[in-house]
Amino acid sequence: MSISVVGVVGAGFMGSGIAECAAVVGKHVVVYEPDERPLQRSRESLEASVAKAVSRGKLASADAEQVADRVLYTTRLGDLGGADAVIEAVTEDARVKRELFARLDEELPDAQFLASNTSSIPIAELAARTSRRDRVLGLHFFSPVPVMKLVEVVTAIDTSEATVSTAEAFARDLGKHPILTRDRSGFIVNMLLVPYLMAAVRMYEEGFATREDIDEGMRLGCGHPMGPLTLCDFIGLDVLYAVCDSLYEEFKRPEYAPPPLLKRMVVSGHHGRKSGRGFYEYAPAATGAPA
Ligand code: 3HC
Fold first, then answer.
1. What atom in ligand 1 is closest to the CA of residue 143?
2. By CB atoms within 10 Å of each CB, which of 108, 217, 282, 284 scores lowest?
């Protein structure tokens, strides 16, 4: 059965991007957040992104007008009740996610799947808070969601094959390329990406090279669209810190341990592009380019 109404929990950067992708391909979307302000920001960011997609020739302007109309923003969890499936994209906090999954289990007894966009929290831990572990899995999107083609489909210990097939088909419906991964911290991509990014942070922390030279090295030498420190800022240093912590907790390997500088930047509120300061400084309407 295909998914025509999608619930998205969390109206941050990832949740907004997932909502946009679903609305662009004609699905109806309900975005839930307990507070009005993030919903307002989400609506604005969707409109800006859709306008950008039109200006880049990725979306016809006639279709663009309908995209926003397909998205309902709500502060009531009960409004998710009519969704065929839900994707949770709230902050990387295991306690918050566990409680949410217990509530989603109650609110959506017929949902085809309950997915988490977590990058590192065990899906099994979230499934355990529901009465249908077979219909819980991970759907890990990449930032910026409207642009990045990949979705990691994370199969937890009790996820059924039917749920995996439904979720893979859903990802393809969104125009994404699903890859299958088991339920362990970091899945495929972050297990590879995080040690690389942390090596760059350590290199910078040790004063071995400037931030610009580290970034240019990988951009111009290896063809990466962004250098590692710019990418850290783009992902968000708070998000990366949480991912490192989970990976280190899971594997106890030094390459996953967050470097001391990262911790100090996070506690000082230097979270990267979104806070105006990370490894680089950003103007208020930053687009990802260092100031
Ligand atoms: N909707 C649809 N398409 C859009 C769009 C939008 N809103 N905005 C841009 N695009 C398209 C453009 O048309 C262009 O497509 P083309 O290559 O076919 O012409 C492409 O996206 C690139 O757009 P721009 O030219 O505007 O932007 P840049 O060239 O400056 O690229 C970037 C910006 C895509 C962010 C690029 O710098 C990039 O790929 N950076 C790396 C991002 C990355 O690594 N993300 C993964 C992070 S890890 C993660 O998310 C996991 C988490 O768990 C930590």
1. 50
2. 284
Structure tokens at 265: 């930047």
Q: Is 228 in the pocket of ligand 1 (CB under 6 A)?
A: no
CATH code for 5-182? 3.40.50.720
| Helix-helix angle 36-55:61-69, to 10 degrees | 170
Check if 5-182 and 189-275 are the same fold: no
Supply 93's token pair: 């906090």
Per-residue pLDDT tens digits for 114-157: 999 999 899 999 999 999 999 999 999 999 999 999 999 999 99
Nearest Cα residue to 91 out of 124, 126, 119 = 119
Whether ligand 1 lies within 6 angstroms of the CB of 119 is answered as yes
Does the CB atom of residue 49 touch ligand 1 within 6 A?
yes
Catalytic sites, residue numbers: 119, 140, 152, 190
Correct CATH for 189-275 of 1.10.150.320, 1.10.1040.10, 3.20.20.140, 3.90.480.10: 1.10.1040.10
User: Rounded to an integer, what distance in angstroms lies between the CA atom of residue 237 and that of residue 253?
Assistant: 20
Supply the residue whose CA is at minimum distance from atom 11 of ligand 1: 147
Residue percentage of the chain with pLDDT more than 70: 98
Do strands 113-116 and 85-88 pair parallel, antiparallel, or not at all (unpaired)? Answer: parallel
**Is residue 290 very low, low, confident or very high in pLDDT (cuts 50, 70, 90)?**
very low
Domain ranges of the chain: 5-182, 189-275
Probe target for ligand 1 pocket from 49, 147, 194, with the most ligand atoms within 8 Å of CB: 147
> pTM for the complete prediction?
0.95
